[in-house]
Amino acid sequence: MTTSTRMLLPLLLMIGLGGALLSSTILAAATLLLAIAGMITGFRKSLDKTGWDKPKELRLMHFAFWFFVLVSFYSWSLEGFDYEGGKTLGTHARFILFWPLIIALSYARVRANAAFAATGLIAASVIVSFFTALAARHGGLDQMLNARFGGGINPISFGNIALLGGMLTITGGLFFVREKRHLLATLFLLTGTVAAAISMLSETRSNLVALPFLLLALVPLFSKKLRLAGLILIPVLVLAAVASSDRMSRSVEGVFQNGNLDAGMEVRLEVWGLAWTMFRDNPWTGIGLGGYTHSIESAVENGDASAILFDCCTGHAHNDLLNNAATSGIPGVLSWLFLIFIPLTLFARHLFSKHAPAAHLAAAGTMVTAGYFCFGLTEATFNRTLFLTFYLLAVAGLGSALFNELSASYTKKRRQKVSATIITKNEEDHIADCLQSARLVSDEIIVLDSGSSDRTVEIAKQYADIVEVTDWPGFGIQKQRALEKATGDWVLSLDADERITPELAREINHHLADPDADAYKLPWAVTIYGKRLDFGRSGRAPLRLFLREGVRFSDALVHERILLPEGRKTKTLRGRLTHYTHRDFGHSLEKSAKYAWLGSLEKHRKGKKTRTMIYPTLRGWMTFVQVYFIRFGFLDGAVGYMTAVTYAQVTFNKYAGLWTLGRADRSKKR
Question: Three-state SS string across 275-309, please?
Fold first, then answer.
């Protein structure tokens, strides 16, 4: 892909999002072109050649989008490939483009400037739509203000996306304020505010539900002194918006004066009740993508539902959760929860990032996902092509930009002296790479060897400052010995089969320029059989980097712990600590057996007991469920499955070993 083509990719993002409200075709075409570019880039492995460290957070978002499509296909297949269901599946299938979009936008190095330029164009299109409509009415402003404004499309779709566009543009304005680009900041803040105000002319009630959550996402972007003022201002703005909405005012008056809801809410309550009945009758499979339509039509024909449902509600249940529950059962509920809350969680965790571009992009991503949660309370957003495609491109664009910014944010140089400590025995295959990676972040390297019979010590002396050979007292005591030889203010405790990746090295050096914690956990990236695992056992982040004063290791034979003084602050870094756990399957079996038996001995030493084989069996199953399902180990494919089974076996062996030790003790007492 040429440089000029690469530069076109951010432009496609801007055209797609900016043109969404002008024409859904513009949004669809730009999304498709970006996805095609991503497919070509992926096929050529162009992004991998740049040294891109694939963020596991984006892989998790990818799972959420794919899972939604898979559940839809599952539901469609169970109902016999119904024609109506096929149309719905065709809409949902657009979500399979998420990863090609990520590849394209990551390759283009889309960052905050491009992402917020795209959101600014959304707000600009809202304003253009309004004044175009105003001009067409020959100055009939009063008439426009007294009718639901939809910009030429469905007022609900227009209102929701216009509000999001306005709030995202305001977020961009605040970003440009932080960047001291005041003219651009003023333009974005004004444009965003006007677009948000115009969105309220749609009289869409879900906008009023979403508004406080969207405003809340802005609060972390302000200084601590201003956050309280912001929290106080939010209810004021929401009450003002509610008071200015004639439709909402009429609804409230109807409830309080007559005890009646308006016609729109009455219809929604009826269709929600029908959707709930469908789910209750078919909790595991749902009634099918097309089955919902047929059920509503049948209910109306039989007189069991209002005739008006024919005109408004045969396509969906006007609520994302209930719609997915009715059509796909519990799997559908899970797919919707994943689709909203996985991106929401991953964006929200960076709201307080010290890197301003990342914090503002996180706020924007939080707005999109939280906004769709609120919009989905009264509308089946993911059954509407415009809503679905906008969500797809917005999350992909903001997600790519966020992680591109985070990767580029590690620029500071380390000011703290770091000592790296490594204990070894027969690690000649690993030790050179381990020590070379440790040198990226340390001033002193200490190696304690416990009697290697290979070239480990010889190789270590080429890279380490201190190399000593000792006896083997156990993992905890040996690591404590190495710690006592360290002279740095900070200590990095590595195992010989671990590596500091270049990106993790930049992150460590950046944080140790001005430490914001007393200890740091480094997320594992277990690498076995030629594959890096991002989930399962790699979901762990062991404590590896810490302020030396007052710290010691436990004296455990295996699975030792770093004991921090009370009150020490710990944080988890993003970069990955590559962990080559074993050379081959034979080594895996040997190492697993060793660690399981050492674990048995350690628990026995502490007086632990298990009297039946039921407990080892249950613990083994629990480990498998935790590693493979709860920690998403299944996303690592066949190697992820093998890893989960291996760890389950280790857990079983550990407690089975403890059981045998207990039986031996009881035999001695007889």
Answer: HHHHHHHCCCCCCCCCHHHHHHHHHHHCCCCCCCH
